[in-house]
Amino acid sequence: MSDELQRELALVRQEIDGLDGQLLELLNQRARFAQQVGEIKARHGEAGFIYRPEREAQVLHRIQEENAGPLSNETVTWFFREVMSACLSLEQPLGIAFLGPLGTFSESAATKHFGHAARLMPQISIDDVFREVEASHADYAVVPIENSTEGAIGRTLDLLLTTPLKICGEVVLRIHQHLLSNEASLGEVKKVYSHAQSLAQCHEWLNRSLPHVQRISVGSNAQAAQLAAAEAGAAALAGQAAADRYSLPQLASNVEDEPNNTTRFVVLGRQEAGPSGRDRTSLIMSAHNHTGALSKLLAPFSDAGVSMTRLESRPARHTLWAYVFFVDLEGHRDDGAVGAALAELARRAPYLKILGSYPMAAY
User: Fold this and answer.
1) Residue 158 phi/psi, 5° resolution?
2) What domains lie within the chain, and their CATH numbers?
3) Residue 130 is a catalytic residue
4) Can you give the pTM of this predicted structure?
């Protein structure tokens, strides 16, 4: 290395060291202000909910709008989420329930939304995830609600019918499936473990690459990785988190049939989220069993200029051949147009439950 090169690098590195010192000072200053927020809330008797999803969403949107690069919006969003997570943990680490074990896509979604300072609480079923928050053993739940390839997650929709919890956020996660195994080649794989949805998402790839290999559905991708790590001739379809946690090499990467495979998760809590400026409202409704009933229920949205982004039917479970409809709207229930449409819907629908108004996923 030439002397001139060393001098040029030394000058740049000196600037970087100086900026690192400033960043450290500013991060700690931000943490002290976050502590002051907690103290102010405590004095006014509002210390119960230290996490405000609408406030976090507003911060992230502002950061994205101000970001001039070269860092991408996705990168700066990740960084500031981690900063906010660390600051919140100074008051009290949030307990986040999700479908376990560790290494699932649900863990990745929980970490993406709440950061690495959150206290992860894996559960053995989606029912248990709901119960942990309903019983106040956890602060929030993160559960999958729909996949871009396989559609709605039925058990989540069924539990939303009866839970007192509110949707207060959402997470959108790109799903990359990898074939994980301790075997050296595809030819040595005799069975593939995975969650039923992951097997379906990789159906065509499995038909082409492992047509005669046994496919075994298990409770989660992380469980599949655990089994594959312990069994000769076994492989698992799972994500990078499971590969890292169970030290399994990738025999094949990104084997999902749909390259844009994405799962949407919702965040459930015991409080309502306020308006953030970029919100979504989710609800469940039923319709009378006669011609034009559903059209009459949807009319208030178009009349008020409210955009409906999702309509999904689901058996009502309590009555044979009766159905309820899950609806997503753009906007917050406190917005004038959305509020007016919901008020009119309440007059028309035999059954209506507002699941929550919450910030749209930032990234």
Assistant:
1) -60, -40
2) 22-89 (1.20.59.10), 93-175+262-269 (3.40.190.10), 178-252 (3.40.190.10), 279-359 (3.30.70.260)
3) no
4) 0.88
